[in-house]
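Q: What does the assembled structure look like for these inputs?
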Amino acid sequence: MTKRVIVLCCHLALLPGCVQTVAPWERGALAKPQMALVPDVQHSALMLHTYASKETSSAGYGVGGGGCGCN
Amino acid sequence: MAATDRLAAFTAAALALPGMVAAQGLDLSPEAPAIDSGYSNYQESNGRMSVQAFQNDASLRLGEDVNFRVNSTLDFIGGGSNPMNLSQIGGASPTFYWGRNNNYGRKYGELELSQATQGPQRGRQGGIHDQRLAIDGALSVALDDLTLGVAGGNSTEWDYISNFFNLDARWDINRKATTLAAGFGYASDTVWADGGNQGRIHQQYTDGTVIGGDKNTYQGLLGLTQVLDKNSLLQVNLTVANSSGFLSDPYKSAWVNDVPAVRSPSRRSASARAAPDMSTHSGASGGSPEPSPSPVPAPDQPAEVPATPVNTFCRQNVPFSFQVNLCADTRPGSRIQSAVLLRYVRNIPELDAAALHLDYRFYSDDWNVDSHTFEAGWLQPLPYETLLTFRLRYYTQRSAYFYQTVYDHPTADGLYSSDYRLASFGAVGGGLQVNKTFFGMLQIGGGVDLYQRTQGMGFMGGTGSHVDNFSFALYSVNLNLKF
Amino acid sequence: MIRHLASGFLAVFFAASASANPAPDCRLSRYQDGAPLNIAGFKGKVTYVDFWASWCGPCLQSFPFMAETYKEFKPKGFELIAVNLDEEREGADAFLAKQHADFTIASDPAGDCPRQYDVQAMPSSFLIDRKGNIRHVHLGFREKDKAEIRAQIEALLSEP
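A:
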């Protein structure tokens, strides 16, 4: 796992070097609400909460706390 | 229902992740003051569980560069009205009353026949079994290319309390084409088994020990968001969480066959000797599993399991029509979880600026659980300021190393869990949502999300049971006001 | 990152020196009717050139300020050109429908202006003196920029 992550990070480090330069005034499409990484924050929170209480994997999306009587 | 991980922030909200931090990516426009309200209704197959959730979130600007967001969630959790029958119990993790200290009129050792996923067990007449109120606040300050955030909150149920706080930082570089994020979180939780009076009575093992305990979690996040071109961006999040303390389910237990017969009094632990009843609560004393040629469940005799660093509580011969031993759900006292999340978003200009979202998460923990999550979303703008969203999801996980549907023998490490969440399985889900904006500031929407868990749908290996298959439908409506 | 720093130095350089940094004379057209516009044509006046787009939040905040500034300083020889850089005109149309802007709105059909001005952020604004030299550069728009910009305009207007 750790090795895989390191390899992945190395690739990611090179990422900015190979992407197309996007000028500040060319971000109109990226600014659209449907292009947000999390377009519907509230619904996403609801689903993450639901999945976290039914599945054992609950990580990756951020850090935070919460309640889960489900353990 | 409750969540463990909430993300954030600008993310985050409500039900699940209060106070999340998370690398959200491009922050092209300052967050406007807004109010988001949602109501959702969760219905699990066969009436196993139902939840009504009310989410209310607001974000305010406290200054030009200072934002405050407050999220609240109120859940009403009901149980099933359609209990399982005895024949189903074998693979499921049975929930039953250890006997002491409940005002539900349950007798010592009485089995709860509803396969409730969690929460207090009241008579399954459809009444409320739990209530959760979660509130968190997040403050963020923008300092040129750097955004710093601090968040904290509390979530309280009848059998669970969580207090948490997070710190996060985002740094825009490359003329905002790249965003780096880092976050740290701490949560202090307490869990117990609700014995009534809305959680004020805590259930105990028959030896008087209160069921449950405290749990501490530290989390860290590193994130990178990169604009790939005019129409696409990619995010990578790496998270690690370290939990320690009581990580078991206070309501669940596992079937264990071949529990050795009573040992000589000298081998019994002090706590077991002190126990006035027929159960044994074995502590950190020595001893190893003592194979017994045949299960000899002696009625009303104490059983003993191997001593381990964790407290394992077993009892024998509960009053059923068949002979059986039960051990309380007992998991390791620590858990390290890590995950890599990849998110890709692409704009399709030819289709009225539709957006394709592809998310993949690989998760791994030191309980030997690995999982893959694949999610896809399609957001289609339609005339009259309408947005249609389709979602698809596939999830699969391997079972935890100590998980078994039924234990043939006592375990050497004293760990027992037949909780379906730790089993091997696969699940598919999908959803549909429609949102319409009025006057450019009011958005109203509604949708449904469906989920089907199926034992045979996973590919990660491990063990599990088809008895734990279930499905749910989650209906939601939302209202958002942006000023 | 290096470009970012470079532009910062450039801005400092512009701000600190009254020596010749001639404003690029890129060709624009009037937003409403496409009539040609020429930044060099404003020589003799203090000119504020703003680059904006409808999807940019701070741009929205800057519009009322620009309208007010334009109204106040116009009689003293001040011009304001807001150059729209939207790729889709509908967005800009909707944006402008909600604004009360008396100043000149321009579009950049050739798409070359922001590159010539080396626009680093949205919005970016350039203050050009009566002789046609760039004297101040502002990246982004914040409330606290308002007083500074007005002071700079007043100073430039008082120059011959």
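Chain C is about 35% helix and 20% strand.
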